[in-house]
Specification:
119 residues; 5 helices; alpha/beta; 13% strand
Length: 119
C-alpha cells in the first residue's frame, strides 16, 4: 500500500503525519542545522541539475518549461527509483528550501511519484 506524499518547506516544524522526511534539495538549506531539520534521508541526486536550477531561478514564467525539463531529467534517475520504493512503504514528506511553495521542484517530484501528468 502506498503512503501519502506531503510536500513541506524544511523550515516548517516536524509533525507526526510527516512519516519519512526526505530532503530533496541538492544543497543543504541555509540556516538549518541537521539537528533541527529532522531529515531521515537526504536524496541530493533526485534534485534538478545545477544548470536547470540556475536556469529556472524560481521564475513563475518559466514554470511550465521547468516542469518538463525536470521530468526529462528524472527519466531513468536511479534516485527516483529508490524514492518510489520508500513512498510505497510509508508516508513520505518531501522537504525543500525554496520560498515559493507553488513553483518548486518538490511539487513536480510529488506529482511524478503520484503518477500525475504534467500540467
Amino acid at each position: 500500500m502506498a503512503g501519502v506524499i506531503h510536500v513541506k518547506r524544511i523550515y516548517e516544524p516536524k509533525s507526526a503525519a510527516d512519516g519519512l522526511r526526505v530532503l530533496v534539495d541538492r544543497l543543504w538549506p541555509r540556516g538549518v542545522t541537521k539537528a533541527t531539520a529532522a531529515v531521515d534521508v537526504w536524496m541530493r541526486d533526485v534534485a534538478p541539475s545545477s544548470n536547470l536550477r540556475r536556469w529556472f531561478g524560481h521564475k513563475p514564467d518559466r514554470w511550465e518549461e521547468f516542469q518538463q525539463r525536470y521530468r526529462n531529467e528524472l527519466a531513468g534517475n536511479l534516485a527516483l527509483v529508490e524514492l518510489r520504493r520508500l513512498a510505497a512503504m510509508s508516508n513520505l514528506t518531501l522537504l525543500y528550501a525554496a520560498k515559493d511553495q507553488l513553483h518548486n521542484h518538490a511539487v513536480v517530484l510529488a506529482d511524478v511519484l503520484s503518477g500525475q501528468p504534467a500540467d
